[in-house]
Amino acid sequence: MHRFFPIALSIALASAASNACATPPATVEITRFAFQPKEITVAPGTTIVWTNHDEIPHTVTSADKVLASKAMDTDDVYQHTFNDAGDVAYFCGAHPFMTGVVHVRRP
Amino acid sequence: MSDSDSNHPNHPADPARRRALGCLAAWSGAAVVWTVAGGVPRALGATTHGHAPAASKYALTFVQISDTHIGFHKDANPDVVGSLRRAIADINALPDAPAFVVHTGDVSHLSKPEEFGQAREILTEIHVDRVHTVPGEHDALDDGVAGYLKHFDHDGKGIAWYSFDQGGVHFVGLNNVLNFKLGTLAALGDEQVTWLKSDLARVPHSTPIVVLAHIPMWNVWEPWGWGTADAAAALALLRPFGSVTVLNGHVHQVLQKVEGHVSLHTARSLAYPLPTPGQAGVGEPGPVKVPAGELGKLLGTRQLNLVRGHHELALIDTPLDR
Question: What chain B residue is nearest to A68 in terms of C-alpha separation?
Fold first, then answer.
């Protein structure tokens, strides 16, 4: 097994390099009444996809309604594309102690 | 127009009611003994074909249910409709029949119209004239409580708070799931607190008060949102009254707090249990799965009785299974 490790590592590095030109969506998992990661930094133009893994519904809501998901049941997703630099604080509309923030920064 | 106006049915001074009683007394031809229990006049003896039902020992009896979560169908309870029906069977079998039922919120699980509709239909199986509801946060997921109000508007005003009088008790239904802001507890909001102040202004301090609200009106456990940010403002308005009973839901377990003449009680759910707060390793209020056969012991209903001559309510919490 150890003989294959250096080869596997170099393949992985090569793949990462070739993907650097695309902007894959970033993901935030809603799990155990928390947004994971709680803070995330993305470049303008990035789409973030939230997925609810809890048995209880949650929402993704910001005070200025930039983020305004419908009720998300288990495995429901919500996505938003962030085009402007800045910070967007958000919370769950049913459980406001669940909070997160998106930092949108030009790279 | 409030329910205590004398033109409203059931008000003691309502002229139509007086006429009805007078006509019925004349029809019976014999001496009729009337008792008023729960605002409903009941005859003893002559008009009941020889069978004399005992007068209820209570001036008023009603039942609280909570957190039915119609639409939930995961392992913690794959059949919430069945649990609700079991509770309804228990309520319909009570020897002291309740005058009405109150539901302290989370009627639905996802605020879907079909969930509200199904809940409303099933609640009609309870042998009472009325089920009074207040919304929980699971009922506020469709444009706030707009979806909930399409099915559960108390008096057609399009507002989720209200009051009514029955059996000599003043009931207040509050909505503490409409003011969610980032990082804070739920709140009643200034408009509702202002309304509460004017509503209570016309109630004598000797009248027992019952307050219905989904989220606890005291800080049960703030990290899980188990509290109401401006409850203190509401409790200050309630403090002058001789007997105040606050009935809450949300936490899916029975917890109580007494502050002078104000007693606050949360209730069991009819869907699934939630953990007790503050346990090591239990970080969030998610549904608790229990071994088969144990679920019924953790779900239940509550009967409330106003004892004649007393101002405090007597509470009886009963699980579905003992």
Answer: B143
